[in-house]
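Anyone up for a design puzzle?
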């Protein structure tokens, strides 16, 4: 949204009534900063149009020129479905894939057909990048099994690591004071809370809620006497874990209390709080600039609320069959769920020549 109250859609500015609510459809394509919108039981702020400044790390890949400005997205007629068809010639230059619920199911294993499809896409010339809410420590094994190189976007876009060197390329953490306030609020509200520093998970109690997370992430937490007091520096993200029946309402509550932060959900039990500069869509735009990729020649595949910014930033978005209605409405295509090898289907139909 520009200073005049107009929204930027498909590379052009259109007048907009001040009190008109943004729909998930239009938010997916917005290039400027928009107000938070309600989606999947939480408020999800959109990213700044300008590149985020790196809070740490190198912020760019060795041997790659400085980013250049992104060209506008192709114009779409008013009312057209977002990503209504692949705007690129196969193969796309970059393929962005979510992990949980997209590439792996509850067994946390990569399926043979999906691995083969990714290998075929890479052989055809596409760069494949994983975009996940996971920590780097819990996601790098999937990138290594797929024999990927280069960037791996973690923490919902709050951090990016190099799979080969294991170096942190950028990080957009929550300031310490805000992270401490959020943690103390989560604990006061009766939820299990977690914070993250240096790609490590910190908790003040080990219980069934912490085990839900650590079983998925396959990491061991660092136990501290007081999580709030342990936050003396910026935290990559803060997570509340609790009863899935309560988490949608709790996400809305946190978003109202902390409108300056990014609130999202990746699993029914989780509510995640991050920097407003951190989301998968911003991370994709940043990589597009760093790698000098045509933003139109990108495809993204995801399955949950936290993938809304990712599909909105891609040239073509694909939702898994298990995705919530909001994500399916945003996508240009819907494929089988992870059990039906939806990634393989998406790449065969929309990526591999």
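Challenge accepted. My sequence:
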């Amino acid at each position: 949204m520009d200073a005049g109250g107009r929204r930027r859609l498909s590379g052009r500015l259109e007048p907009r009534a001040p009190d008109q609510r943004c729909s998930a459809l239009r938010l997916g394509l917005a290039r400027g900063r928009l107000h938070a919108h309600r989606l999947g039981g939480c408020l999800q702020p959109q990213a700044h149009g300008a590149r985020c400044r790196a809070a740490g790390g190198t912020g760019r890949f060795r041997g790659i020129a400085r980013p250049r400005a992104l060209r506008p997205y192709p114009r779409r007629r008013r009312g057209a479905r977002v990503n209504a068809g692949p705007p690129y010639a196969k193969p796309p230059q970059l393929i962005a894939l979510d992990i949980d619920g997209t590439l792996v199911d509850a067994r946390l294993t990569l399926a043979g057909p999906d691995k083969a499809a990714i290998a075929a896409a890479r052989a055809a010339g596409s760069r494949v990048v994983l975009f996940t809410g996971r920590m780097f420590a819990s996601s790098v094994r999937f990138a290594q099994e797929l024999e990927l190189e280069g960037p791996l976007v973690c923490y919902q876009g709050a951090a990016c690591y190099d799979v080969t060197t294991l170096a942190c390329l950028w990080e957009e953490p929550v300031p310490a004071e805000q992270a401490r306030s959020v943690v103390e609020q989560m604990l006061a509200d009766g939820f299990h809370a977690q914070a993250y520093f240096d790609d490590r998970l910190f908790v003040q109690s080990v219980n069934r809620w912490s085990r839900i997370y650590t079983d998925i992430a396959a990491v061991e937490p660092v136990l501290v006497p007081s999580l709030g007091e342990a936050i003396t520096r910026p935290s990559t993200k803060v997570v509340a874990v609790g009863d899935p029946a309560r988490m949608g309402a709790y996400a809305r509550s946190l978003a109202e209390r902390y409108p300056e932060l990014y609130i999202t959900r990746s699993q029914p039990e989780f509510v995640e709080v991050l920097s407003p500069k951190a989301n998968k869509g911003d991370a994709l735009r940043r990589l597009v600039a760093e790698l000098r990729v045509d933003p139109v020649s990108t495809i993204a595949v995801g399955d949950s609320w936290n993938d809304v910014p990712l599909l909105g930033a891609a040239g073509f978005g694909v939702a898994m069959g298990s995705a919530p209605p909001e994500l399916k409405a945003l996508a240009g295509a819907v494929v089988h769920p992870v059990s039906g090898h939806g990634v393989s289907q998406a790449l065969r139909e929309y990526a591999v020549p």
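A detail worth pointing out: Confidence is low (pLDDT under 50) at residues 1-83.
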